[in-house]
Amino acid sequence: MKLLERIKDDYSVIKDLSISQINQLCKEIREFIIEVVSKNGGHLSSNLGSVEIITAIHKVFNIPPDKIIWDVGHQCYTHKILTRYEKFETLRKYRGISGFPNPIEDQTDIFLVGHAGTSISSATGVKIGNDYKGIKENIIVFLGDGSLTNGLIFEGLNFLGSIKKNIKIILNDNKMSISPTKGALSYYLTKFITSPIVNKPREEFIEIVKKIPAIGEEILKLTKEIEKKTKFLIIPGVFFEKLGIRYFGPIDGHDIEQLIDILENIKNIEEPIILHVITKKGKGYKFSEEDPEKFHSIGPFDIETGEEINKKKTNSKFVGEILEEMAKEYKFFVITAAMEKGLGLENFAKKYPSMFFDVGIAESNAIVVASGIAKTGLNVFVAIYSTFLQRTYDQIFHDICLQNLPVIFLIDRAGLVGEDGPTHHGIFDISFLRTMPNVKIFAPYSLENLKETIKNSIVEKTPVFIRYPRDILPQNLEEKIDKEDRGVILAVGSLGLNSYIAFKKLKEEKIDVSFIPICQLVPFDEDLLDKIIKFDKIITIEENILSCGFGSYLLELLSDMKLKKDILRIGLPNKFIEHGDRDFLLDKYGLSSEKIYKKIKEFLSD
After folding, report:
1. Is residue 309 part of a domain?
2. Structural domain ending residue among the three candidates 239, 272, 288
3. Is residue 199 over pLDDT 60?
4. What is the CATH number of the domain that holds 282?
5. Structure letter (DSSP) for residue 109
6. Is the pTM of this model over 0.85?
7. Neighbouring C-beta atoms of residue 10, cutoff 10 Å
């Protein structure tokens, strides 16, 4: 019987497993992750690298009531297998379990989280609240090393160090190497420093040593100096110690015996600590070890070859190629926040390294740096996912729009992104951007239109936002206008193709309606306004929430003009959309070509 099967039936079994059994359990977990992700897609390499440390956390701590609070959250697959094994095969499927922590699924997921930098601050808040209520529990923060580029993490560390709350931070470092000699020395030093004789309680130990006649104070001073100087020799933890966080490590994140030893030692230390573990991204699967970036987030793939199955073309790659082409003629800079490959910019970065900057998971920093470049009179693009653009609202307001600086934003993953779910859907950007003064917002509806829009943006004198979906746009779309038609379809950006298919079907049924694909959303094109006010019925279609979207903008304009028109707005409800296949979600929320066709037909038949 597999150990995973035993744990499925009785989670407490993990407490009684031997070291060899825990190693076997980790092997089973790793194989299961590879099997499920190969079918469903997901974040593979980071999860393969964190199997042992997460399993050790579950063995040593009592979860629940002890809590794991995740940063970003995409490294939680081992945790999900241990707490909901039977559901793991539904990973990222509609009505299956999410690829991120989700409290609706299980009490051991504390927050629904998919963005970096939040863990230490939220964990500190939970600890403050539970201390006030008299609840005794361990809170473990699981922090990926990439999150250390996010400023919010340092705000959280600074505050935590000042109030000294008992929180255990596991820093999963999968980008550093550690030699066997240094690793062994660090492990034994960490084991000694974390041992109960020193730390249980630390104050009691200090008082005992102090009482040694004549030499007690000197021994304490010498002990502190040895610890400090030895740490300086082998570890990078002095920075954390200066913030008031005790640092231990680094240790081998794949040596289960070491991990359990150290976790047992730190379990009862009553002050904030950080344990630094070194792991190998993609461990246990050859192809992900060789190319961890490719397997960071991947669609279904063939386990035997590592090749993605039915890999879709993306607008990201196309945009990267446009920028490469433009770089031959124009001088400009491109800035991104730790998403070079996802945004299709890896080739641009190699060809034009002096024009490319990756600031890490620090979106706000990216925006302000771009404002500085624009202030010097140079052209600059900020390439970013729609969901991460949300994190920069104040910088867009204060540092870009208020200054009226011509920074160009390339907003990838606009609209429904599918299996990554509510933390990653880009369905709010039109709404929160169009309230800003000075902006120009575009949503290209075809590859030809996307290329033209990006190339034209280089001469704009105000902030420009260009939003586009991940899935490839059609090569081209053309407007079809008949002045004798009663109605007109205004199809925004990514929904141009679905709307056009619906339009063609309506025309086949002799329904008098025209079709206009829309690229420029804000400010409203005056020539377009002149065209559409001649129609009695107007249909707007957008892959954005309806609240404050393009359709609402048109209603406001017509109201100001005192024009009464019969208008149908088709878009997404003002809610957080669940995860699932993008085409399925489009259909569920009325944005497939068939659902658009039915809605328009009913509207025009009134």
Report:
1. no
2. 288
3. no
4. 3.40.50.970
5. -
6. yes
7. 9
Instruction: Find tokens 């092997």 and name the residue.
Output: 27
566 three-class SS: strand
Whether residue 181 sits in one domain with residue 252: yes
Q: The tokens of 448 are what? A: 């030809």
Strand order in the sheet with 487-492: 513-518, 487-492, 537-545, 566-572
Nearest to 554 by CA among 572, 529, 590, 520: 529
Q: Is 391 among the residues known to form the active site?
A: yes
Q: Based on DSSP, count helices (H) and strands (E) in the chain, helices before strands.
A: 26, 16
- For residue 455, what pLDDT is reported? 97
Could you tell me if residue 475 is inside a domain? no
Helix (H) / strand (E) containing 571: strand 566-572
Kindly state whether residues 418 and 541 are assigned to the same domain: no
Query: Is 165 noted as a catalytic residue in this protein?
Result: no
Same domain, 339 and 405: yes
**Tokens 């945009």, residue?**
319
Q: How far apart are CA 128 and CA 122, in angstroms?
A: 10
Is the per-residue pLDDT at 526 higher than 80? yes
Q: For residue 250, what are the CA distances in angstroms to 189, 190, 274, 276?
A: 10, 8, 10, 5
By mean pLDDT, which of 33-37, 225-229, 288-292 is the weakest?
Answer: 225-229
* Nearest residue to 262 via CA among 271, 249, 272: 249
CA–CA dist 99, 421 (Å, integer): 8
Question: 502 and 596 in contact (C-beta within 8 Å)?
Answer: yes
Active site residue 281: yes
**In this structure, are 461 and 491 located in the same domain?**
no
CATH number at 590 reads 3.40.50.920
Number of domains in the chain: 3
Neighbour tally for 246: CB within 10 Å: 20
Q: What is the DSSP letter of 415?
A: B
Whether 493 and 456 share a structural domain: no
List pLDDT tens digits, range 309-334: 988 889 999 999 999 999 999 999 99
Distance CA 28, CA 22 (A): 10
Q: Which of 281, 283, 467, 537 is catalytic?
A: 281
Report strand pairing: 520-522 vs 440-442: antiparallel
Q: Domain span at residue 224?
A: 7-288
Residue 178 pLDDT more than 50?
Answer: no
Q: Look over the chain and give the mean of its residue pLDDT values, rounded to a whole number.
A: 90
Cα dihedral 179, 181, 182, 187 sign: positive
Q: Is residue 306 part of a domain?
A: no
Please identify which of the residues 52, 363, 419, 542 carries the catalytic annotation: 363
Annotated catalytic residue, options 30, 168, 280, 391:
391
Same domain for 593 and 458? no
Could you give phi then psi for residue 33, rounded to 5 degrees? Answer: -60, -45
On whether residue 308 sits in a domain, the answer given is: no
